Amino acid sequence: MSDFPVYSYIEMMDDEFPFKVEVRTPADMNRVQHAHEHLQLCYMMSGSCRHVTNNRSYILTKGDLFSIPPYQEHRLEVRESMEFVLVQIDFMPHVINENLRDLTHMQTFMDFAYIRPLISQDDLIPKMSLPPSNQLSVESLLEVMMTEWTEKEDGFRLAIKAELLKLLVITGRQYARYSENQGQQEHQSVLLHREALHQAIAYMESHYHEDLHLENVAGIAYMSPSYFSSMLRLIKGKSYIEYLSAIRMQAAMELLRSTGLHVTEIASRTGYNHISHFNRMFKKHTGVTPRDFRKHPSYSN
Questions:
Q1: Taking the domain 242-300, which CATH number applies?
Q2: What is the pTM of this model?
Q3: Fold for domain 6-183?
Q4: Contact 17, 9 (CB under 8 A)
Q5: From CA 12, how far away is CA 180, in angstroms rounded?
Q6: Are 218 and 225 in contact (CB under 8 A)?
Q7: How far apart, in Å, are the Cα atoms of 119 and each of 56, 192, 292?
Q8: According to the model, what pLDDT value does residue 98 have?
Q9: Are residues 11 and 38 in contact, defined by beta-carbon separation less than 8 angstroms?
Q10: Segments in the chain below pLDDT 50
């Protein structure tokens, strides 16, 4: 167990719209080492402070953008009594759109938000200093988000989603440019982490019929179980258990459609040792029992 608090997103945000934007100053900041389930993006509007993460301290100044992935411990510290204004955005990725739960196509943003902190314990700095042109763009869209969040007029959620998506695109593009200038070694490290992650997911998809354990699958990705789970939620929009169940149910439905195998055999072939558990999970996933699914071809659509 960790010796610092880990906040659930449901404690801090509305489950139907898991988003929040706040302004942090020396008078209003979390000085406690902590972690959280959701993703966080922070931008320094002015001044300077320290960000402590991975047991190291980094100086932040105006124009710096940094990310805090789920379950990464961190805290802010005042720097020599200097003032600062920091905009903090907390969100779950699927707040943008339920249909955008799979953010694989936003590869550069995923690298910045998740993979980069994994390798930042070396000489890499887990932040980006935005050029002046990008600072203006980011500050403008942050102002829109803060206004919409404060006033909450009709359509404010849609307006926030639009601005947040713009921020993610700017972040991803800037990180792509930033990475090009950091040398081949960092680029290779990112590729290795990404490849290991996708190998672990591919392992789940091809070994779903086995008795899989989160710790073992996470080990394939060279990640802790909690970190792998957060990565999986970002990429596939589901927790480890949810994604494994979805894979197994898809395989079960295919066997019910295309074979005459007994339901007990299908349960066994898709990783379920107890038929009652399989039946319960199948009905939860499809709304019908396995036998009813087989009887009515329309359920297959």
A1: 1.10.10.60
A2: 0.71
A3: Jelly Rolls (2.60.120)
A4: no
A5: 36
A6: yes
A7: 13, 11, 50
A8: 58
A9: no
A10: 1, 100, 120-125, 301
pLDDT at 123 (0 to 100)? 40
Domain boundaries along the sequence of the chain: 6-183, 186-238, 242-300
3-state secondary structure the chain: CCCCCEECHHHHCECCECEEEEEEECCECCCCCEEECCEEEEEEEEEEEEEEECCEEEEEECCEEEEECCCCCEEEEECCCCCEEEEEEEECHHHCCHHHCCCCCCHHHHHHHHHHHHHCCCCCCCCEECCHHHHHHHHHHHHHHHHHHHHCCCCHHHHHHHHHHHHHHHHHHHHHHHHHCCCHHHHHHHHHHHHHHHHHHHHHHHCCCCCCCHHHHHHHCCCCHHHHHHHHHHHHCCCHHHHHHHHHHHHHHHHHHHCCCCHHHHHHHCCCCCHHHHHHHHHHHHCCCHHHHHHCHHHHC
Q: Give the largest Cα separation in the chain, rounded.
A: 73
* Pairing verdict, β 64-68 and 128-129: antiparallel
